[in-house]
Amino acid sequence: MNSIGRIGRAGLASLVAVLLAASSAAPVYAAANEAVKMTPDADIAKLPGVAFTQKLADMLPPALKEAGVLKVATDLTPPISFHADDGKLVGIDADLAAALGVIFGLEVQMTDVGAGAAIVPSILSKRFDISISGINDDPELEKQVDVIDYMYDATTIMTIKDNPLGIKSMSDLCGKKVAVPVGTFQARMVEAASAKCTTPMDIMAIPKMPDVLQAVRTGRADATVNGYATSVYTTENQTGNGKGLQALPDVRLAVGYLGMLTAKDNPQLRDAVVAGLQQLVESGGYEAIMKRWSLSPLAVKTIKVNDAASMPVE
What we know:
Helix content is 36%, strand content 23%. It contains 13 helices and 13 strands. It has helices at residues 3-7, 9-25, 42-45, 54-57, 62-67, 92-104, 119-124, 139-142, 185-194, 209-217, 228-236, 267-283, 285-292, and strands at residues 35-38, 69-74, 82-83, 89-90, 107-112, 130-136, 146-160, 177-181, 202-206, 223-227, 245-247, 253-262, 304-305. Strands 1, 2, 5, 6, 7, 8, 9, 10, 11, 12 and 13 form an eleven-stranded mixed beta sheet that branches. The radius of gyration is 22 Å and the shape is globular.
């Protein structure tokens, strides 16, 4: 007799019901390269400035207005954008993307492209209209794409909790194993610092930020050099397996901007997004979003474009 016969039809039905219940209770995460429709939650929808604004919608490129869909690239780095425990895509960028959708009257589809290094190519290839992904602005990046500077950030060092190696500066990383995400500003910063070491750093270039952090948690790396916002959030909201992580808050290097990216031949979209974000700034909605993620000190007062050269060079 086959296994179904031994279980019996009633037993099989009960088993299926249990499996379906377990499946429905588990969080559902969007896979990399899977578009997620972004709609504001109740807290974001009621913020000042989050309302359809015809004059801003009129600024959009005709093709985008006709399509009715804004395609957004991101990669997962808390608190910029990440999956909550229930599987929902959340974070500063998720809130801003949803708010912009309301302002422009567009459906917003946000896609995790899987790694920060994929962001610029995805904009250059026109696969996406814009990235909202906490990319560090710098003059070299501005040669390829237009960068909408929408919040401040800095760079710091992260170690495992209690910093057992006593790391206090970039020079203390000489001879150490340092994990960095591939193709990022921080990766270039670490490479430049390593070149000045008597004993170079052992640099581990890893595609995804969660895997960078995990390398430090599990002892594969001694430290990572990472964005200040992400590091502070990760310290306060420990996730992942292995030892806890600790940002070094006294280390604030390369203070600059995080930017949204648009193609250089799409100035209408760039200018519309700048105006939409400025509406959120002036109304107080932007500040509320930043406060929601405990990053009010990193809020800007004016949305600027390609402004990296104005920031101090460390």
